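Q: How would the structure tokens look for this protein?
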Amino acid sequence: MRKIDEVNNPNSCLNKAKDNELIFVLLERDEAAPIAIQAWIDARVRIGKNSYDDAQLKEAREILFSMMERRR
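A: Here is the predicted structure in token form.
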């Protein structure tokens, strides 16, 4: 999700974070970001929090693919 969309969406992960909760942001320009996103997706499935077809993971894959495509 683009920064402006994340900030403006009351249901975004950023806006759902508690005031004292730590967050971590991956930027599109970080070459390791797609690798980290894929690792996160795989970990969520491995620990049973999601399945690969869940909307949350579909969105993560869309971002991952978009990052890779824009890098070309």
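The radius of gyration is 13 Å.

The chain is about 55% helix and 0% strand.

Upvote if useful.
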